[in-house]
Design brief:
single chain, 290 residues, alpha+beta, Phosphorylase Kinase, domain 1, Transferase(Phosphotransferase), domain 1, 2 domains, six-stranded antiparallel β-sheet, three-stranded antiparallel β-sheet, 13 strands, binds adenine
Length: 290
């Protein structure tokens, strides 16, 4: 595999040809993706014909594990709290004997990941628009005291107008005093303080780091700090973090100076020195969207 490509870490959504099952008033159709506790299916409301994404959580897989149950509750709590144009909308939660089904807005434009792959990388104008939407949603969640903690390309979907839909709040947490102690998320997108400090970290700054990794991927078509096994620094998480701490991001020539400057201020290992959301919104690169 070439080092400079995005590659998927999760199994891809498959079309299944199983018979159609109903969940409450929804007819379950093809699989859109695989979640930690079950599948996400396309669902159609049998009376209105409206499409939804239905996240099925098999109670069996959650079992009696307090931490797994906590994760499901956290996600439902975050989704109930957040109402924003660029955050996936929660419509309903249905419980049956075997499943908890979370009825979500269907993002018909697919994953941002696939969109970038199809274009290799995005034009700055397109990346700017999507990044401004992402930052607006993150600012909203942080104001509502929720930190996502697992922002990555796979968790950013697109609606039919190609607007961002932030999804998967399974790691989301209510921030208290902006300090947290649990490490979560994917290593390629995780802020260095999550691993290096092994202790408390400023909640909101970790989401900002991940937004920087996402912007870098949009502009360059690959991740700035990759754990792709082809990358000699990437096959081991400790090595990956040593690499992150010691290597300032480098850029292909086509990335503008303003975009490079913004990314250099976001991908700063010290969370105290990292750009805040306000700083980002006032940066010249985002000026057309301020
Ligand atoms: N895959 C996972 N969640 C989804 C959603 N809300 N819309 C479309 N595809 C999805």
């Amino acid at each position: 595999m070439e080092p400079f490509t995005l590659y998927r870490r999760q199994p891809q959504g498959r079309r299944s040809n199983t018979r159609h099952i109903k969940m409450g008033p929804y007819l379950l159709l093809q699989t859109l993706g695989e979640g930690e506790f079950g599948k996400v299916k396309l669902g159609i409301h049998t009376e209105t014909g409206q499409e939804f994404a239905i996240k099925l959580i098999r109670k069996e897989t959650v079992g009696y594990s307090a931490s797994r149950l906590n994760k499901v509750e956290r996600e439902i709590h975050a989704l109930r709290t957040l109402k924003h144009p660029y955050i996936v909308k929660l419509f309903n939660v249905i419980e049956t004997e075997k499943y908890i089904a979370i009825i979500l807005e269907y993002a018909s434009g697919g994953e941002l990941f696939e969109y970038i792959l199809a274009h290799r990388c995005l034009k700055e104008k397109d990346a700017r628009r999507l990044f401004a939407q992402l930052i607006s949603s993150v600012q909203y969640m942080h104001r509502r005291k929720i930190v996502h903690r697992d922002l990555k390309l796979e968790n950013l979907l697109l609606d039919r107008n190609r607007n961002i839909v932030v999804t998967d709040f399974g790691f989301a947490n209510n921030k208290q005093d902006d300090l947290m102690a649990t490490s979560c998320g994917s290593p390629c997108y995780a802020a260095p303080e999550l691993v290096v400090n092994e202790g408390q970290y400023a909640g909101s700054a970790v989401d900002i780091w991940s937004c920087g990794v996402i912007l870098y991927a949009m502009l360059c078509g690959y991740l700035p700090f990759d754990d792709d096994p082809c990358n000699p620094d990437g096959n081991n998480i400790n090595q990956l973090y040593r690499y992150i701490l010691s290597t300032p991001p480098s850029f292909p020539k086509h990335v503008s100076k303003d975009a490079q400057d913004l990314l250099r201020q976001i991908l700063v290992a010290d969370p105290q020195k990292r750009y805040t959301l306000d700083d980002i919104q006032h940066h010249p690169w985002l000026k057309p969207h301020s």
